[in-house]
């Protein structure tokens, strides 16, 4: 192909063109006509000229624009069709970059072209070309590669698509104007395109898409006989499977969410792409034939499958027509013949609603849609969705027709879900949301606004749940619910408000003392112990009471105040009740103030420690001390430990306070040692939060090291709650502390659930007998029994024993006889300042006690 034969700039990548060769031969023959090689060169020149003429004839005969491009995209040649199409002279194009004709091409547009051509394939692309006057036209360009004088070049054929675009525009206009629905599906049944008639026939609303509407689970598809049509028998499925046109198939489409039945006649046409033996698309062309099917038996059958029937009321003749499916839905022994008889099937309120809708439809020439409840002949209730409208063109509104859909199952499901949403799944009583909703409804009604709320919390539930497991905890909650229900009876509503918290709402309009009577009945219901297998456990209830309107007019406010009263009850006695009061509210404000000041107490150096001697009960010698914290606040004054320690526990400040106590106690022991008083063992209380929240062993090791103390200088007292922490880390912490020489003691032993198995496993040194039991000896038989049991446990396990709260000589004598070696309490000394405690140590013993 002699592409360079025409005049024009030579491409820098081509050294000598065939045209150059022909010109050189002709110049040589003109100068040397007698040269021996002249005849041969003359024949070569003729052959080159002939070849060029054939190339030029073929090149210009192609009806589409053809360009020859160099490797870098320079136009080397252009045929006549190209000159005509681009409306430019040939010399204005040849030698110019291809971007002259395609100004929208990116800088690296040749990269994918050469990548395709090097694989031996043809590169095809649709682009927009530009004529000399600046106008654009679409083209489809096919590019192929070839060698020109050893250099890679491109031949590009551009086909004008303007005619095809015009055809497509006419096609789109046709699709948008015809009254038949046309939908194009791909092989995965996804919608590619759809015309307006398809949207109208299938009932697509303005805010919907056809894809969203055509969800398979929302539709019931039947054949022309009203039978369910499997997916594989749908005309479109058959067109894909068989590769043939499936013509004029009648189908019924029922859309469940909208309750709409549509009949169509559909033809499905498979579409094959070039080179494919299986269709990859299919057209569905369909017409709406619903009106033709409305009065047929097939229509009734299809409605039966969808549980939807038809009805028509002739007002002028006062006659009511119901299809068989409508009669089945209503379930009346005698078919209603008039609208009055149909109304008699409905509830009173719904009778009035339907009558009003019929009157409005007649007056406005409009339609209606109602959900109505009635009763069948067998006594069972039914729910229907009734749709009606005045027939088009009936100016007198003599005929109203529509559908009757059975929605009983849906309504029953909704009611079941509504009940479940308001019910606690474990206990079967109302849940938190239901209680709040009912209480809000009562408070919003002036005639029912005098109510009271009882907030109930189970004491010691968490201990049982932790020790015995969640199954036992669930059983306890179920039995507790039954006890509360029996105590309340029909005098209040009961709800489970949280894990082990319950709510009772009662009316106070007639009986002012109703809340207190119910609270007393509930506490009495918890007196019998709970039994799990062979074991019995005492679980009590603490109750707070708040009344509307004096204690609150909103649900959350009322419940919050009852909750506040409950916590006050739990803090004081447990297994009792407490009514909310203004004093309690002030106390709550005081607690908030305490918590606020507590966070800054350590930084302001408001804490100090006093030391209560632990005394040899027989000889009166001081053997150790317990460090007791005191707080002197600049605003609140001196605060008792029992007043602020519980707040510190709940807020988490106890961890920080615990670190300060340990550091200060170790510092004081060091100071006493420097005074020559020897190593004084000091006991400090370790909070459960401090135990589980920090590396306690490391903290103790650092404190001892800081003041160069032996481990025996420190005694750590834990509550029984630590015993139930059945975790490897718990055992490791106790082992690490014991290895340091630290004395480990369980404080207030016997008050909680004494997990003896864990007591046996943990490497502890001793127990502290709670003041709660010591204060009742020797006169209280129950306290005596507990003290004897604890002493027996300590002896059997080889543990030391310290009695707290020794306040009388009778108590000391009793404890001595019981074998308790050490005690502390006001009989010997209260908590002493460090210098006073040092003075006692120097005296070596307290005043002589009677043996």
State the CATH class of the largest domain: Alpha Beta
Largest sheet: 8 strands, mixed, barrel
Quote the beta fraction. 15-25%
Number of domains: 5
Which strand order does the major sheet show? Answer: 24-25-27-28-29-30-31-32
Structural class by helix and strand composition: alpha+beta
The number of distinct helices, counting runs of at least 4 residues, comes to 30
Task: List low-confidence stretches.
Answer: 1-16, 845-851
| Number of DSSP-assigned strands | 32
Fraction of residues in H or I helices: 40-55%
Radius of gyration (CA) equals 49 Å
What is the CATH fold-level name of the largest domain? TIM Barrel
CATH superfamily of the largest domain: EAL domain
Average predicted local confidence, pLDDT: 83
Gap between N and C termini: 133 Å
- What is the CATH architecture annotation of the largest domain? Alpha-Beta Barrel
Shape assignment: flat
Domain EAL: 591-845
Organism: Stenotrophomonas panacihumi
Protein name: PAS domain S-box protein
Domain GGDEF: 449-582
Could you walk me through the main structural features you see in this protein, from its secondary elements to its overall organization?
- This protein has 851 residues and is α+β, with helices and mostly antiparallel strands.
- It folds into five domains: 3-162, PAS domain (Beta-Lactamase, 2-Layer Sandwich); 178-205 and 217-293, Beta-Lactamase (2-Layer Sandwich), CATH 3.30.450; 307-413, Beta-Lactamase, CATH 3.30.450.20; 422-580, Reverse transcriptase/Diguanylate cyclase domain (Alpha-Beta Plaits), CATH 3.30.70.270; 595-842, EAL domain (TIM Barrel, Alpha-Beta Barrel).
- The chain contains 30 helices and 32 strands.
- Helix 24 (696-706) runs parallel beside helix 25 (728-739).
- The longest helix is centred in the first third of the chain and has 24 residues, at 38-61.
- The chain starts with 17 loop residues before the first helix and ends in an 8-residue tail after the last helix.
- Residues 1-16 and 845-851 have low confidence and may be disordered.
- This is PAS domain S-box protein.
- Residues 368-419 form the PAC domain.
- Residues 167-211 form the PAS domain.
